[in-house]
TrEMBL record, chain A:
<feature type="domain" description="ABC transmembrane type-1">
    <location>
        <begin position="66"/>
        <end position="282"/>
    </location>
</feature>
<keyword id="KW-0813">Transport</keyword>
<dbReference type="GO" id="GO:0055085">
    <property type="term" value="P:transmembrane transport"/>
</dbReference>
<dbReference type="InterPro" id="IPR035906">
    <property type="entry name" value="MetI-like_sf"/>
</dbReference>
<feature type="transmembrane region" description="Helical">
    <location>
        <begin position="206"/>
        <end position="226"/>
    </location>
</feature>
<keyword id="KW-0812">Transmembrane</keyword>
<keyword id="KW-1003">Cell membrane</keyword>
<feature type="transmembrane region" description="Helical">
    <location>
        <begin position="70"/>
        <end position="91"/>
    </location>
</feature>
<dbReference type="InterPro" id="IPR051393">
    <property type="entry name" value="ABC_transporter_permease"/>
</dbReference>
From TrEMBL, chain B:
<comment type="similarity">
    <text>Belongs to the bacterial solute-binding protein 1 family.</text>
</comment>
<dbReference type="GO" id="GO:0055052">
    <property type="term" value="C:ATP-binding cassette (ABC) transporter complex, substrate-binding subunit-containing"/>
</dbReference>
<keyword id="KW-0732">Signal</keyword>
<dbReference type="GO" id="GO:0042956">
    <property type="term" value="P:maltodextrin transmembrane transport"/>
</dbReference>
<feature type="signal peptide">
    <location>
        <begin position="1"/>
        <end position="20"/>
    </location>
</feature>
<protein>
    <submittedName>
        <fullName>Carbohydrate ABC transporter substrate-binding protein (CUT1 family)</fullName>
    </submittedName>
</protein>
<dbReference type="GO" id="GO:0015768">
    <property type="term" value="P:maltose transport"/>
</dbReference>
<dbReference type="Pfam" id="PF01547">
    <property type="entry name" value="SBP_bac_1"/>
</dbReference>
<dbReference type="InterPro" id="IPR006059">
    <property type="entry name" value="SBP"/>
</dbReference>
Length: 290, 416
C-alpha cells in the first residue's frame, strides 16, 4: 500500500522534474559550455577557451555595467525593505480603510512592468510634456534631466523599481507580523516594555524568516532588473552612456543585437555566479544562530 | 500492347511532372509593417496571375525578431526561399550562408549596374550581387509651415544652406522664462536619423570623409570631422535651437508641432501624413556654403535563400525579378511611399515634380550608403559620442577621437 503510494507520488513528481531538467538545467549547463565558444548562431560553435572571459574582464563597459548592477542591489534592496517594513508596521495598526490602502500599495505589483515604465518615462520627460518637470516649473524650480542625465538616470529608474515591488513586500511583511502571537506583545506590555523595545526585542527577531526571504527575493530581483531600464530608455538602451545599464540588458544586447552568443553566455555565467554568491552570502549572514 | 503501356507510363509521368510544376510553392519572408505587407500581397497576387504554376506564401515577423528568426530558421534548415533583408545585414547573411549569389542568367550584372541607383553596390560582395531592392529611402528636411509663418519666415521658401537652416531654427526656437525649451527650431536626435546626417552628410560638407577602404577604416577623426561634430553639438549648446531628448524623440516633437524642422527619411511619410494640426513641407537637406550636398540612402533588398534549388529556384528567380520590376516599384511607391530603386522608374517627371517625393529623389542622386558591420553598435557609438559632449562636458576633439577608436574596434571585431 505504501509502496503503491510512493510510486504515485514519484510519477507525479517526475513530470516537473523532467520539465525542469529540459527547460532549466540543460540550458544552464549548455550555457557554461557555450561561454567557452565563439558561437554566433550561424557557424557551429568553436572552442576558444577562456577568451570570452578575458575579453569581458578587460571591457570597461562590463565594469560600468557591473557597478550599475550592484548599485541597484546595494541601494535598492535596503531602501525597499526599510520602506516596506515601515509601511507594513504602521498599516498593520490602521483599521480605517485598511483594505483600500493595502490595495493601493499592491496595485503597482499587478501592473505590467513595461506599461509602468512607459508611464514613468513620460513623467520624467523635460518640459513641456514631462509631468514632474512641469510641476517643478510652476514652483519656480529649474528642471531636472532625470533619465537624460548620467547622474540622475540610475536613481530615477531605481525609484520606479522600488515602487513597483513595494506592494508585494508589504503584504509579505504584514503576513509575518500577523504570524507573531499576540500573547508575546501582551506579556511584554505587562512587563512594562516600551514600543521601541518591543519592536527591537520581539517583532524584529520573530520576523527574521520573513526578512531573510524578502532580502534574498528582492536582491535577486534587483540583480536581474531589466524591464524598467529597457522600456524607459529604448531610444538609447541602458541610458545615456550606459549609466543605467544592468548586466541583463548587456547580455540581451550582446546576444540579440550583436549575435555574439558565446560572449553573451560568458556574461550569463558571470551573472549566475554573482546571483549564487550573493544569495549564499545572505543566507549565511542571516542564518539561525544556534 | 507494349507501346500502349509505354505511352500510358509516359502520360503518367508527364502529368506527374505537370502536377509537380503546378505545385511549386515558394515562401517569402519580410517583417511586419502594415503597408509593406499589403503592398506585397498585391504584388504576389499580380505575380500569381501571370505565373499560374507558382504560388507564393508570405510570412511575416515583428521587426525586432526578424533577423533572429531568419538566422534561427537557417540553423534549423528551414526558412524562406525569398527574403527581405536590410542592406547592412548582408555581411552577416552572406558569410553565414543564408543567401546565395543572384544567378547571373536571370540578373546580369551590367543590367543591374545600369538600371539601379549606384547604391546597389552595397549588395555586392566579391563578384556577386546578393539581392535587389524594390524601394530605396533617403533623407530630407521636413519643416512645419505653421511654425515658419509664426516665426516670420516664408513657409514656401525653406532653408537651402546650413547657415539658413541655423538662422531659421534660431527664429523658431522658443524658451520659457527659466530657459527651458518650449518649441525646438529643429530636432536633435542622434538615435533617430541625425547620426546618418552627421556621418554621411555633415562630415563631407566640412571637407572630410567618414571612412575609406569600403567603410572598413574610420577616418573621420580629423579637422573636418571635428568641425562637423562641433557644428552639430553647437546647435544645442551655443545656438540652443534644440535639445537631445526634447519630447522624448525627434519625430514625436515634430509630429506634435513642437519642432520647426526635423531630418528624417521617406519611411516617416506614412506617420507624418496623419498630422492634422499643421501643414508641413519637405525640402532637400541643406547644402553647405559652397553648395556641396550629400545624403544617406538605405534600403531593404530581397535575396534568394542558399537552400533554394531546382524548380523552387526557378520560381524564386521569377518572383524576385517581378518584385524588383518597374511595375512592382510603382505599386510600392503608391502603397508604401518608398522611392523606386530603378532610376527610370524613379526619375519620372511626375515623381520629380511631386512636392514630397521630389526632394527625396534629388537626394538619391548624390546619396551615400554606409556599409555598416553592426548598425546598432555603430549608431550607439555616435549617440555616446554626442552624449559625452552634451552631458559630461568632454571636448569635441577628445570625444571624436574616442568615438573613432571605438568604432574601428567594432568594425575590426566583425571581420569574418
Amino acid at each position: 500500500m505504501r509502496a503503491k503510494r510512493l510510486v504515485w507520488v514519484w510519477s507525479f513528481l517526475a513530470l516537473p522534474i523532467l520539465f525542469y531538467s529540459v527547460i532549466r538545467f540543460y540550458p544552464t549547463i549548455e550555457a557554461f559550455w557555450l561561454s567557452l565558444t565563439n558561437w554566433d548562431l550561424l557557424k557551429p560553435p568553436q572552442f576558444i577557451g577562456f577568451a570570452n572571459y578575458q575579453k569581458l574582464f578587460a571591457d570597461p563597459q562590463f565594469w560600468k555595467v557591473f557597478k550599475n548592477t550592484f548599485a541597484y542591489l546595494v541601494i535598492g534592496t535596503p531602501i525597499s525593505l526599510l520602506l516596506s517594513f515601515v509601511i507594513a508596521y504602521h498599516l498593520d495598526r490602521v483599521r480605517f480603510l485598511h483594505g483600500l490602502i493595502r490595495g493601493l500599495y499592491f496595485l503597482p505589483y499587478l501592473t505590467t512592468a513595461a506599461a509602468m515604465a512607459w508611464v514613468w518615462r513620460w513623467f520624467y520627460q523635460p518640459a513641456p510634456i514631462g509631468v514632474i518637470n512641469n510641476v517643478l516649473g510652476t514652483l519656480g524650480i529649474p528642471q531636472h534631466p532625470f533619465i537624460r542625465s548620467v547622474d540622475q538616470a540610475l536613481p530615477s529608474i531605481m525609484v520606479t523599481a522600488i515602487w513597483a515591488g513595494l506592494g508585494f513586500q508589504i503584504i509579505i511583511f504584514m503576513a509575518g507580523l500577523r504570524a507573531i502571537p499576540n500573547t508575546f506583545y501582551e506579556a511584554a506590555r505587562i512587563d512594562g516594555l516600551g514600543e521601541w523595545a518591543i519592536l527591537r526585542k520581539i517583532t524584529l527577531p520573530l520576523l527574521k524568516p520573513t526578512t531573510v526571504f524578502l532580502v534574498v527575493f528582492s536582491s535577486i530581483g534587483f540583480l536581474r532588473i531589466f524591464d524598467q531600464v529597457y522600456n524607459m530608455t529604448t531610444n538609447d538602451p541602458g541610458g545615456p552612456l550606459g549609466s543605467t545599464k544592468p548586466l541583463v540588458l548587456m547580455i540581451y544586447q550582446t546576444a540579440f543585437s550583436s549575435y555574439a552568443m558565446g560572449y553573451a553566455a560568458a556574461q550569463t555565467v558571470v551573472l549566475f555566479t554573482i546571483l549564487l554568491v550573493v544569495s549564499l552570502l545572505q543566507l549565511w549572514i542571516l542564518r539561525e544562530k544556534k | 500492347m507494349r507501346k500502349i503501356l509505354f505511352a500510358g507510363l509516359l502520360a503518367g509521368f508527364s502529368t506527374m511532372a505537370l502536377n509537380a510544376a503546378q505545385a511549386v510553392e515558394i515562401e517569402y519572408w519580410q517583417y511586419v509593417f502594415d503597408t509593406r505587407v499589403k503592398a506585397m500581397d498585391k504584388l504576389i497576387e499580380n505575380f500569381e496571375k501571370a505565373n499560374l504554376d507558382i504560388t507564393v506564401k508570405q510570412t511575416t515577423f515583428p521587426y525586432a525578431d526578424y533577423q533572429t528568426r531568419v538566422i534561427a530558421a537557417k540553423m534549423g534548415g528551414q526558412g524562406p526561399d525569398v527574403m527581405q533583408l536590410f542592406y547592412g545585414w548582408l555581411d552577416k547573411f552572406a558569410a553565414g550562408g543564408i543567401l546565395q549569389p543572384l544567378p547571373t542568367d536571370a540578373f546580369p550584372h551590367d543590367k543591374i549596374e545600369s538600371e539601379f541607383f549606384p547604391i546597389i553596390s552595397a549588395m555586392k560582395r566579391g563578384d556577386d550581387y546578393y539581392g535587389l531592392p524594390t524601394a530605396v529611402r533617403s533623407l530630407a528636411l521636413f519643416y512645419n509651415k505653421k511654425l515658419f509663418t509664426e516665426a516670420g519666415l516664408d513657409p514656401n521658401n525653406p532653408p537651402k544652406t546650413l547657415d539658413e537652416f541655423v538662422a531659421a531654427a534660431e527664429k523658431i526656437a522658443r524658451h520659457d522664462a527659466s530657459g527651458n525649451l518650449v518649441v525646438a527650431g529643429s530636432t536633435l536626435d542622434m538615435g533617430g536619423q541625425d547620426h546618418q546626417w552627421w556621418r554621411e552628410v555633415l562630415i563631407r560638407q566640412f571637407g572630410g570623409e567618414p571612412y575609406t577602404d569600403g567603410d572598413r577604416k574610420v577616418i573621420y577623426n580629423d579637422e573636418a570631422g571635428e568641425k562637423a561634430l562641433k557644428f552639430y553639438t553647437d546647435l544645442q549648446t551655443e545656438k540652443k535651437i534644440g535639445q537631445a531628448g526634447f519630447m522624448d524623440e525627434g519625430q514625436a516633437a515634430f509630429r506634435a508641432g513642437m519642432a520647426g524642422m526635423t531630418i528624417d527619411g521617406t519611411f516617416r511619410l506614412g506617420a507624418f501624413k496623419s498630422i492634422e494640426g499643421f501643414e508641413w513641407g519637405v525640402t532637400e537637406l541643406p547644402a553647405n556654403a559652397e553648395g556641396v550636398r550629400s545624403n544617406y540612402a538605405s534600403y531593404f533588398a530581397n535575396g534568394i535563400s542558399a537552400k533554394t534549388e531546382g524548380e523552387k529556384l526557378e520560381a524564386a528567380k521569377k518572383f524576385l525579378a517581378y518584385i524588383s520590376s518597374p511595375e512592382a516599384m510603382d505599386i510600392w511607391l503608391k502603397e508604401v511611399g518608398e522611392l523606386p530603386a530603378r532610376r527610370t522608374a524613379a526619375m519620372t517627371d511626375a515623381n520629380l515634380a511631386d512636392p514630397i517625393y521630389g526632394p527625396f529623389l534629388k537626394g538619391l542622386e548624390y546619396a551615400h550608403t554606409t556599409m555598416f558591420v553592426d548598425e546598432v553598435a555603430q549608431r550607439q557609438n555616435t549617440i555616446d559620442m554626442t552624449n559625452r559632449i552634451l552631458l559630461e562636458g568632454q571636448s569635441v576633439k577628445d570625444s571624436l577621437a574616442q568615438a573613432a577608436e571605438a568604432e574601428q574596434a567594432i568594425i575590426d571585431a566583425a571581420k569574418p
